[in-house]
Design brief:
DNA-binding, disordered C terminus, HTH lysR-type domain-containing protein (chains A, B), DNA-binding (chains A, B), 130 residues, homodimer, two-stranded antiparallel sheet, mainly alpha
Chain lengths: 130, 130
DNA sequence: ATCTCTTACGACGAACGTAACGATG
DNA sequence: CATCGTTACGTTCGTCGTAAGAGAT
């Protein structure tokens, strides 16, 4: 009777990967252009949704838990697939697949890489921040 | 300079696939246990997010547009990956991968298939509705 | 006339930013 | 004491359900 819902959001995964990479809520929040409290709340809601703690916030070091380490590659895959889905609807000609494949492993760094590449669709996601 | 956001939600994709399969907002809404207006609004927001119409609602027939047809397999891949991500954190023993692989191609029918299988994690998602 | 999708409306919930708090080195 | 993460609070935006409207067979 317990409806676990599994309401995992793409934003939650993006925030989680940012923290997992930086191993810091502060740096992750800075990279995501949001405040720490937002990242904290989002990670907490993600942990609630999946039903397991993902990060070990003991002392000053943020470490991945066992479940968190297992989630990382899968979270990458989800964001990768989501990016592919977004590009699919914009693919009027076949040459877009190259762009997608280029962004796959760097999907969490979408804020700077696409700007450098200057690709048409990705360029629209570039943001000019210090 | 146009920030396209790309705020695609997993729920939107699930709704979209339901409509794409049923080719009907009404039947899709019934299967998803929500009202038609909710599905309509969700699809519309998805179309706004991806920046292209996905469904052709002319007359009584709902048909997939070109972009919509391209999105379907990618949307499946995203939901598949999301399901894999949820299972990853719950994988205490290695035997779960079989359950995941079983659910991949039927991820949009999560409401009934898992109930039949009676798997531990999936069973929590089963809902008892008429 | 009936079925299907859309739009309007009020209400609930989620996420954000600001700000204050607790803990660790 | 300085930094990092959490909690509290008010605002804003999205989604839901109910209900009414437009189009087509």
């Amino acid at each position: 009777m317990v409806v676990s819902e599994g309401a995992v959001d793409l934003r939650q995964l993006e925030y989680f990967l940012a923290v997992a990479e930086e191993l810091s809520f502060t740096r992750a929040a800075h990279r995501l252009h949001v405040v720490q409290s937002g990242v904290s709340a989002s990670i907490k809601s993600l942990e609630r949704d999946v039903g397991a703690p993902l990060l070990d916030r003991s002392s000053k070091h943020v470490r991945l838990t066992d479940a968190g380490a297992r989630l990382v590659p899968q979270a990458y895959a989800v964001l990768e697939a989501a990016q592919r889905a977004r590009d699919a609807v914009a693919a009027d000609d076949g040459e877009l697949s190259g762009t997608v494949r280029l962004g796959t492993m760097t999907s969490v760094r979408l804020l700077d890489v696409p700007a450098i590449l200057g690709s048409t669709t990705a360029a629209t996601r570039a943001c000019s921040c210090s």
